[in-house]
Each structure stands twice: as C-alpha cells, then as structure tokens.
Amino acid sequence: MSNSRSAINDITPYIYGTTKLGDEAISHEERIKIARAAMNSGVWFHTARMYGNALEVLGEVFAEEPAKVPKLIIKIGWENIGQLRGVIEENIKPLGLSGVQLGQLCLGGELAKDFANGGDCYRVFQDLKDEGLVQGYVVEAFPWTSEPPLKALRAGYTEGIIDGFIFYLNPLQRFASNELWNEIVERDQPIIAMRTVSGGPVHSLRDVPGFAWKDYLQKRAVEVAPIFERSTIKSWTEFCVRFAHSFPQVKATVGSTSHVENLNEFLSAKENIEPLPASICKEIEALHHKWSNELDMLAEPWTM
Ligand SMILES: NC(=O)c1ccc[n+]([C@@H]2O[C@H](COP(=O)([O-])OP(=O)(O)OC[C@H]3O[C@@H](n4cnc5c(N)ncnc54)[C@H](OP(=O)(O)O)[C@@H]3O)[C@@H](O)[C@H]2O)c1
Asked: Which of 76, 88, 140, 250 is the most buried (most CB within 10 A)?
C-alpha cells in the first residue's frame, strides 16, 4: 500500500478530541487540567480553529512541556485552494508549532470540485507537505459530502497523497455514504472514526430527555441499547472503542471529554482492543446501511 511512510501509521488507537477545551461553560482551570492529562497519556489530539479557544488552551499546555506535545490532526479547507495555507497557519500559530501530522480536508465549493476532478489542489497538497506544514492528509466525509471523495478515490487521484478518510463512525452513526463506505472497505483505505461514544452513554441518549442533541440519535439509541446489553460488556466506552476497531481499516477513534475519569475510561479501553463479535458488528452495520438510505442521505446538509 502507498501509505507505508504515512504519518497515519504512527497514530494512537484513541485520539483525544478537543471540542470541550473551547467550552466556556467549563472553567479555564478545568480545561487546562484535562488537556494536561490527555497530553501526559501520549495520545494524538484532534483540534480545529472553530472549537472556541481550544487552540489557545492547547498552546498554553504545550508551552509548559514542549517535549510532550502530542501529534495532531487539524481541520483545514474550505472552499478553494487559496485558503489552505492560511487555515493551517491560523491553527499552528496559537499552538506554537511549525507544522502538524495530519490535515483533515473539509471540502466545499470549488475545492470539492477540484478534488473530485483531480485538479490543482493535489499540487498544493504536495507543496504544503514539502514545506512541512502537514505530513499527510485525511479527507472528511459526511453523507452530503461523500460524492467528491468517492469520485477521487475511484479515479485514483487520492493515491500517494491522501492517507485516509475521516468521518463519524460509532454505533449510532456512519456518515460516509453507503457507496463511499463500500469503496473504502473494498480498497482497504485507512479510516479515522469520529465521535467514539456517539455523544454519551447509550442509556442516557435513549432515556434522558434532551440528552441526545437530535431526535434521531435518541431513536437510534433505542435500537442499539439492546445490542449493547446482549454483548454483556459493562462499559459503553469499551463497547464503542471495540466497535470502531472491529473494522480492520480503522486506525483510531476520536472521542472527547472534560472529565479525567471519562478520559481514563477511553485510555483503558484503548489497551489490548478486542474486536466485537462478528454477529454484533453485522447487526450494527445493517442498521448503518438502513439509516443511511432512510435518513442520512436525505437530510439537509449540516442538520444532523
Ligand atoms: N467534523 C468534524 O471534524 C468533527 C465533528 C464532530 C466531532 N469531531 C471530533 O470528535 C471529537 C469527539 O466528538 P463529540 O464530542 O461530538 O462526541 P463523543 O466523543 O462521542 O462524545 C463526547 C461526549 O460524551 C461524554 N462522555 C465521554 N465519555 C463519557 C463517559 N464515560 N460517561 C459519560 N459521558 C461521557 C462527554 O462528556 P464529559 O465531558 O462529561 O465527559 C462528551 O459530552 C470532538 O472533540 C472533535 O475533536 C470532529
């Protein structure tokens, strides 16, 4: 495979997602504390300029112990190739770094078209790599943005420059379209799975009014909770980490928390990961396929 020298081969099976570091409802002190704990664990981090002042919180913690700075994925894009360099710079500056391991390509507008058609963006991707601003790329996919990556993958444009794909993949969501998913699996492309626990414990998603941020997640929790219970696995976090890593293409799962005890659950779940029994995976995969046709592909973009 062309990914033998890729940064993605070096990834940790659990990645700390940093949205909570930008949450103003949590004290600055608490956010520094969880960021430090995650940094001390040695896992990779996933971050973005749009997560409030998460980058500034990270910059503060990184400056304390430069030797412990984690490897990072940052979100970059958006509408045209001219934006890419500036977006990387607005991320790495507050982090106090000269580059990061992976850029998560969020493709919209002209950039998405160019990507699908094997255009100039690939030259720019290579230039930014040559300059050391990023060491590699993963392409983001949502149901409504799956088509350009699918076209590019089928045409072979991603070969040698795109290291993998990144999308929501957890028991309640699989946000690559069915077609893109099948193509990724068939071509054995690396995947980074996002939203490890689908936003929280499945019983809270199912039973606590307002806990699920969208109604469809509550309904999906009703379908998935009995499968989780039948597995006899006690911890939802463990179930979810094992679920993501049941797919051989999955290299890592990105989960977020503001609490050290929940971070510790993620960290213990990433040790000696055992795939879930095939029957459980098949059952959830069938739900993913059904949900994709019934809802995900029909949804207004960015509403779920
Ligand atoms: N398009 C994108 O690039 C994109 C979109 C969404 C997410 N992401 C990335 O993925 C990361 C994770 O996404 P996410 O936060 O939406 O989903 P998630 O990791 O599935 O869910 C995080 C939520 O689950 C709770 N939680 C975690 N462990 C728990 C436990 N053991 N018990 C009870 N509650 C627990 C956390 O609350 P506590 O704080 O109370 O622990 C938090 O509210 C983000 O930080 C971000 O880096 C990327």
From this structure: 76
Does residue 252 lie in a domain region? yes
Condensed to tens digits (0 to 9), the pLDDT of residues 243-259 reads 999 999 999 999 999 99
The structural domain count of the chain equals 1
The answer to whether position 247 is within a domain reads yes
The reply to whether 246 falls in a domain is yes
Give nearest CA residue, ligand 1 atom 25. Answer: 200
8 A C-beta contact, residue 269 and residue 241: yes
CA of 200 to the centre of ligand 1 (A): 7
CATH number of the domain within which 217 lies: 3.20.20.100
How does pLDDT run across 80-103, given as a tens digit for each residue?
999 999 999 999 999 999 999 999
Structural domain boundaries enclosing 94: 12-298
Note the pLDDT of residue 137: 98
Q: What is the pLDDT of residue 4?
A: 47
Is residue 304 in some structural domain? Answer: no
Residue 203 has pLDDT above 50, yes or no: yes
